[in-house]
Design brief:
Blueprint (H helix, E strand, L loop, with lengths): L9 E4 L10 E4 L1 H8 L10 H14 L3 E3 L4 H21 L5 H7 L1 H21 L11 H10 L7 H13 L3 E3 L12 E4 L2 H9 L3 E2 L2
Parallel strand pairs: 1-5, 1-6, 2-3, 2-4, 4-5
Helix pairs in contact: 1-2, 1-3, 3-5, 6-7
Length: 206
């Protein structure tokens, strides 16, 4: 069933946009996954090229590139999942996540190295540094309050709060949830989001 996104953000199609030195971006986890992990998979092949291409253009333009420390948790999960699926194809059998994690030390070492390598690239490719957030009572209250208006997952509730705290309104992402958040600018190659934004008159060019 198609997802009925109510577009609240301003949406920019990265395939026709040129980043500048005035831009200040937060890069979402899915983009880091495709950018930093050589074995990254995707259901839409253009994701593996268009996001890294745009991020490289942003870096070359001296745009300010930020990451979120929260992305480490999501990136580690994605890498472990992909490595497990590769291993399953190798042994031609299904294996549960915890069994893979605890019963196969050589595989665990490989996963750890991949995560460390990917995160090293994240930090080097985002010279403006992380958008820090302290997950205290005030932050969790703000995140809970966001639940009513912003249709995003738990991690992204905190990511949005960190963006607000640091005055960052631009995010590079393939995640359509961000497009439903008012007051931010979503830079994406997600054709479904771009189409919905065009229909709802929220597609912007610069």
């Amino acid at each position: 069933m198609p997802i009925n996104y109510s577009i609240q953000a301003d949406v920019v199609d990265i395939t026709v946009d040129a980043p500048t030195a005035d831009d200040m971006f937060l890069v979402d986890t899915n983009v880091w996954y495709w950018m930093t992990y050589p074995k990254a998979t995707s259901y839409v092949p253009n994701q593996l090229s268009e996001y890294p291409d745009y991020l490289n253009k942003a870096l070359n333009a001296n745009a300010k590139i930020h990451h979120s420390g929260l992305s480490l948790a999501e990136l580690a999960h994605l890498i472990e999942k992909t490595e497990r699926e590769i291993y399953e194809r190798t042994i031609r059998a299904a294996i549960k996540t915890k069994e893979y994690r605890h019963n196969h030390p050589a595989e665990r070492s490989r996963v750890t190295l991949e995560i460390q390598a990917a995160w090293g690239q994240v930090t080097s490719l985002s010279p403006a540094g992380p958008l820090a957030i302290t997950v205290d009572a005030a932050a969790t209250t703000a995140a809970l309050n966001r639940c009513h208006a912003d249709k995003v997952d738990g991690y992204d509730l905190f990511v949005l709060e960190s963006m607000k705290n640091h005055g960052v309104v631009q995010v590079i992402t393939d995640d359509g949830d961000f497009a439903t958040v008012q007051g931010i600018h979503v830079f994406t190659a997600n054709r479904n989001i771009i189409h919905a934004a065009k229909v709802q008159k929220k597609l912007r060019s610069r």
